[in-house]
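Q: Predict the bound structure with flavin-adenine dinucleotide.
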Amino acid sequence: MKQSHYTVVGAGVAGLTVAHQLAEQGHRVTVLERDTFVGGLARTWHYDAFHFDVGPHRFHTDNPRVERFIRDILGPHVIEIRRSSGVRMFDRFHEWPLRPSVFRAMPIRLMVAGVRDLVRRERLPGESFEADVLNKYGRTLYEIFFRPYTKKFLGYDPAELHRDWARAGVNRAVIDKRASADSLVSLIRTTLLPKPVDTTFLYTADGVGRFSDTLTERIRGRGSSVLTGRRVTGLDAAGERITAVIAEGERIETDGVIWTGPITEAASLLGAGQVDLEFLSTVFYNLELSLPLNVNYQWTYFGGDEVFSRITAPTAFAPTMAPPDAAGLTVEVTCREGDERWQNPSGPVDAIVRDLVRTRVIDSERQIRQLHVEPVRNTYPIYKLNYPAELARTLRHLGRYRNLLLAGRCGRFWYNNMDHSIGQGLTMAEQVLRGRQLADVDEGERAYWEDDAPAASGVESR
Ligand SMILES: Cc1cc2nc3c(=O)[nH]c(=O)nc-3n(C[C@H](O)[C@H](O)[C@H](O)COP(=O)(O)OP(=O)(O)OC[C@H]3O[C@@H](n4cnc5c(N)ncnc54)[C@H](O)[C@@H]3O)c2cc1C
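A: Predicted complex:
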């Protein structure tokens, strides 16, 4: 039987997982990646002996099949580590999920207001993120944390966002079912748990990028191609089928396309007109530091007036992420592709350094040996109020192509995690191998959301 030639657009974990499974079964696959490296959002930057992921990145899943796959790919390099994350509130660092000590740091007037929120519940109608958070956690927590953090992080007021932002970003597990925090009452209960939530996840000694690097080697080992520096800029279609993909001037004939780049780009190449789906981008400031690093949570959220929204300490994931006499630190500042910050990413450096010293993350600017400024596009889909209708319309338009499959975080406009993209990739490949047409292999994201819902808990923006 003639095996098909599939083209996978994007070498993130979703695209590489599908490509790997198809290549293993003898299909010819060509993966086209616009960047000069693989991994997408799950890449690792290596600067000599310093290694930095794209902010905090850890493998965690409740799905045994996905876990087996991750362990199989990482092989002897897999390590298990304990989670430790923090948040800066009331001018101090606290464990996240919160511990009872946070109440000692809390101003009395806020405690009184919090107690009032417990008694007088808000009942805001509507589909907005604002309504969701206010109704669940009350006005005090909303005003002191959720609102400023969301505005700083996304540049939108919670009233302009859809409540799915809470389902994905806030409700997603603190990765422990005990740490439920889907209401003010359960948040307080979790905070008062006698023992802190203790969870582990999978990692490697030199960053999560190893997963994509290994998949790439294996795909190539099967005679298929993973081509970097190949941005797809055209899709040729005849009737209901895509016949060829255009990348860097080259025309590649194909039997089917698995698209994991932004859905907005696929829509534009296939004439869907203007699509109002917006992605956030992020500038990552990777600092090589002399010791000491005073905050050793793996990652820490900042909801105050600092320029950044989160910092990550790679050596708190694995000491091998930096030389023994040094530490790494990643600082995240969000933006939009093309905006002023994107065009001049070095602009906020002075303010970042000032805030790191002011909040005592580091003692002094002199500790910074090197700074690498790394802008990354399309880090988060932004769930504005109109997104469900806009996404449905776009999926309908693209659904008319029988040999096109949309997958992954950007391809599905899906605020997800690596394990979701990997799980989706495994399921999609399985169905393709059973002979289903690509357009019928619509293993969308909703099923995963249902899985997530019961594990609702604290603020997580990954
Ligand atoms: C800051 C941050 C922290 C995170 N932390 C975690 C975590 O701790 N744990 C976790 O499980 N998940 C985490 N995630 C989520 C995780 O990174 C994603 O779920 C996952 O990497 C998505 O993989 P993907 O393949 O679906 O998409 P992507 O990684 O976005 O891959 C899409 C690929 O397509 C390429 N592409 C786009 N357009 C084109 C084109 N026209 N032609 C060719 N190629 C194109 C892109 O360059 C990219 O490589 C985090 C995400 C972020 C941003």
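A: The chain is about 35% helix and 25% strand.
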